[in-house]
Amino acid sequence: RGVACQGPACSSRARRDPAAVGQRPGETMGLEKEKADTKIFMDEEGFDRSSSPALSDAEKSLEKAPDRDPHGLNSHLKLGFEDVIAEPASTHSFDRVWICSHALFELSKYLIYKLLTLFLAIPLALVAGIVFAVLSCLHIWVVVPFIKSCLMVLPSVQTVWKSVTEFFVAPVFHSIGKCCAAINIHLDQE
C-alpha cells in the first residue's frame, strides 16, 4: 500500500484545468498510460502526513520566499510549456515525446536561467548600479539645476523677447500684411 506522487513530467495544464485547453472535464488527451508509468510510490511509514516538521523561528522565516517582483515588472515572463508550445486537438505528437519535451523544456529553462544568473547577475547588477548612480548624480547635480536656472532667467528673456517682437518684428509683418491686402485675384473662365 503506498501514496501516489506524480513527478514534474506529469503535471500539465490539461490535467490541472481541462477547460483551459478546450477539453471537457474527465478527458485526459491520451495521457492515461503515461500517468500510470510516471507515478512514484512511497511507503506510508516514510511519509508522515499527520505532523509537519518542527521548525525553529529562523527556519519558519526562511520558509516563506520573499516576493522578488513586488511591482510585477516581469509578470510577462511567467510562461510555462503550455504557453509556448501547444498542439491542437487535430495534431498530436506521441505522448512520450510530449512528456519528454515538456520535461526538457522546464529543465533547460530552469538550468540555463540558473547558469546565466550565476555568471551574469553580479556583474550586471554592478553595471546597473553604476549606471543608475551616474544618472541620478547627473539628474540631481546637473539637469535639475540647469532647468531651474533657465526657469529663473526666462521671465527676463520673455520681457526682452516681447520688446524685440513689438519694436522690430511686428512692424515688418504689419507692413507686409498691408502690401498683400491690396492684391486682388480674379479668375476668368473662357
Features:
two-stranded antiparallel sheet, 5 helices, 2 strands, 190 residues, elongated, disordered N terminus, 57% helix, mainly alpha
Can you describe what's shown?
With 190 residues, the protein is mainly alpha-helical. The chain is built from five helices and two strands. The protein has a two-stranded antiparallel sheet with strand order 1-2. The longest helix is centred in the last third of the chain and has 87 residues, at 95-181.
Task: Map the helices and strands.
Elements: E1 2-6, H1 13-16, H2 32-37, E2 39-43, H3 57-63, H4 81-84, H5 95-181
Antiparallel strand pairs: 1-2
Brief digest:
The chain has 190 residues and is mainly α. It contains 5 helices and 2 strands. A two-stranded antiparallel sheet has the order 1-2.
User: What string gives the helices and strands in order?
Assistant: EHHEHHH
User: Roughly what fraction of the amino acids lie in strands?
Assistant: 5-15%
Helical stretch tally: 5
Unreliable stretches covering 5 or more consecutive residues: 1-21, 23-27, 31-42
Class based on secondary structure composition and strand pairing: mainly alpha
Shape: elongated
Mean pLDDT: 77
Helix content: 55-70%
Distance between the termini: 109 Å
